[in-house]
């Protein structure tokens, strides 16, 4: 560019920073950011956000914090997408207290979108930090921003932490909060965070046939395919109530031969478990 007497501007450097970020060359990214400053060009919001996100996903805590300090001095706002990435950076760096302080800064500002709460709950949940995930969930509840997505990731977090009873209780409370999980499933708006399979899995692992069996029936009625995890959970539930491994092997074989008849066989076996459970509780 210099040969044709054309000087690069801030946008030129932003493009170079973005290109090297995509190619995972963080050293070149940092180099071009410094060269931009050396050329007396003012990095803009795009420059800072791109670099900050690149540092955060690589757990470069010191570099990220130095950049945050610069942005604060210049009055540049950190977007919520980058905020979530920074929370995750602190979590993965083992700096839980710092991650909560960072989250709290944005929460107190009062303009966080529900997607940001979801991302933060999920970040804690994925790493097994249930107490912190619960804390963010409660803060979200304070803001009256609870949607099905917050419930999804919190239930997912409980599942990862093997807190099956808590997961089931939270799922049961969704109606009370005016959030319907089933309608979202039918509309196809749920991803792997929460589905009938996950709910069935949670109830089965918690040893709650009264809830697991109606969920299973709903799945059959809605023609939702069971995954291997759900079948394994149902198998464990039946084992807990005295079913033999040989009988369960036959159930699985029947599913492979004829799905429709196989589902009916599972339904019959599960119904007998429910009757047994009700009899034992009398």
Brief synopsis:
The protein has 282 residues and is mainly α. It has helices spanning 10-22, 26-38, 45-57, 61-74, 80-92, 96-109, 114-126, 130-142, 148-160, 164-172, 181-187, 196-205, 209-221, 228-240, 245-257, 259-280.
Itemize the secondary structure elements and their pairings:
Elements: H1 10-22, H2 26-38, H3 45-57, H4 61-74, H5 80-92, H6 96-109, H7 114-126, H8 130-142, H9 148-160, H10 164-172, H11 181-187, H12 196-205, H13 209-221, H14 228-240, H15 245-257, H16 259-280
How many helices?
16
Runs with pLDDT <50, length 5+? 182-194
- The number of strands is 0
Distance between the termini: 85 Å
Report the biggest beta sheet as strand number plus sense, adding barrel if it closes.
none
Question: Pairing-aware structural class of the strands and helices?
Answer: mainly alpha
Alpha-carbon Rg, integer = 25 Å
Beta strand %: under 5%
Please tell me what the overall shape is.
elongated
Integer average pLDDT: 82
Task: Give the helices and strands as they follow along the chain.
Answer: HHHHHHHHHHHHHHHH
Keywords: Repeat
Family: Belongs to the PPR family. P subfamily.
InterPro entries: Mito_RNA-Proc/Resp, PPR_rpt, TPR-like_helical_dom_sf
GO molecular function: mRNA binding
């Amino acid at each position: 560019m210099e040969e044709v007497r054309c000087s690069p501007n801030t946008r030129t450097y932003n493009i170079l920073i973005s290109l090297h970020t995509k190619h995972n060359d963080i050293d070149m990214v940092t180099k071009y950011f410094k060269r931009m400053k050396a050329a007396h060009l003012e990095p803009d919001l795009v420059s800072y956000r791109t670099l900050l996100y690149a540092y955060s996903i690589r757990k470069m805590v010191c570099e990220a914090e130095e950049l945050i300090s610069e942005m604060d001095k210049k009055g540049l706002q950190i977007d919520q997408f980058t905020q979530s990435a920074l929370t995750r950076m602190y979590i993965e760096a083992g700096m839980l207290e710092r991650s909560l302080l960072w989250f709290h800064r944005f929460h107190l500002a009062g303009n966080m979108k529900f997607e940001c709460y979801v991302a933060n709950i999920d970040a804690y949940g994925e790493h097994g930090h249930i107490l912190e995930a619960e804390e963010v969930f409660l803060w979200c509840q304070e803001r009256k921003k609870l949607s099905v997505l917050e419930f999804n990731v919190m239930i997912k977090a409980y599942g990862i932490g093997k807190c099956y009873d808590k997961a089931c209780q939270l799922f049961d409370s969704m109606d009370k909060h005016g959030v319907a999980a089933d309608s979202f499933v039918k509309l196809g708006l749920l991803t792997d965070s929460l589905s009938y399979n996950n709910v069935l899995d949670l109830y089965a692992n918690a040893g709650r046939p009264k809830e697991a069996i109606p969920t299973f029936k709903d799945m059959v009625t809605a023609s939702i395919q069971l995954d291997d995890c759900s079948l394994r959970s149902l198998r464990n539930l039946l084992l807990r109530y005295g079913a033999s491994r040989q009988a369960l092997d036959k159930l699985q074989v029947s599913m492979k031969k004829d799905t429709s008849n196989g589902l009916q066989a599972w339904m019959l076996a599960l119904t007998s478990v429910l009757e047994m459970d009700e009899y034992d509780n009398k």
